[in-house]
Amino acid sequence: MIFSAAFVATALLPLAFSHPVEKRQNALPPVNSAVDELVLQLALYQEHLEFSLYTGGFENFTDAQYTAAGFPPGFRENVGVIAQHEAVHAQTISTILSDAGFTPIPPCTYQFPYTDPKSFVDLANMITSVGIGAYIGGGSLLTDDPELITAASSILTVEARHDAYLRTGLGASPFPTSFDTALTTVFAYNLARMFVVQCPQELNITGLPKLNFVSPAPSPNLQPPIAAGTPLQFTFDPSTFFVPVDPNAPLYIGLVNQVTNVTFVETTSCGTGCVTAPVPAGLGNVAFAVLSTFGGGLNENQISEFGTLAGPAEVVLS
What we know:
Elements (H helix, E strand, L loop, with lengths): L1 E2 L1 H6 L2 H6 L15 H26 L3 H6 L6 H25 L9 E3 L5 H23 L6 H25 L14 H9 L2 E3 L12 E5 L15 E6 L15 E5 L6 E4 L1 E2 L4 E5 L7 E7 L7 H8 L2 E7 L2
Antiparallel strand pairs: 1-2, 2-3, 4-5, 5-9, 6-7, 6-10, 8-9, 10-11
Helix pairs in contact: 3-5, 3-6, 3-8, 5-7, 6-7, 6-8
């Protein structure tokens, strides 16, 4: 489903009147460096995406359709409230950037591959998990600005509540792991770009070749988890790699999950542009997979800077 900025700007007006947003005259944090600006622009890029996503989830389905799909009463209305939250987040970040003399990145046109309430919520869980990872990873870059860290943290906790609500609606655990997974700016940006049809402006962040996660699909309520040892299948286009790769060289899937370093697993070929790799033990919730010629020794920052052939791809494990 494709949504433009013109559509989402008016989509939630009835809900906005039933849930008014209090306006407060609070001092906004400063933007002290180019790194601060990049982190905020990426956060805004993600918030625009999520606002469009949740607006569609509210506008495209009725209460009856959510109920028929097994979601509890009031679920659709809360999807609309989440969309409101994303709108407020986007407006707040835009104001912080504008007050500091920067031009906020505008919304894009998006396409989301869902067809019914269940597939919408499955997708929303995945996209919100990317947003959570982006805020965790971005916060580590805001070391010179405690006020921005506080502002970003206050958004992060709300995003985590959104995801817990979605997961509960699916019948899954609202807190499947002890830790969430941080994402680098490169990984977060590339995961968000997958849903962009057209953008008036892109961020100055490296775009990576695409890695497609093919199978297995997670259980309907994400339980039981995908078991350790289960083969994960991925596809990719070798012609898009930034560097030449010996066709006989071993390839690895690096899985970024929770607070561990990247877990590397050697792949088995399933044809040109196709590999499988077993799920390592100890992973849960969502993991972010990249294809690499490196079989170890790199952390997430390093593999996102120079070790990725294709990816990341999001893998929902539990």
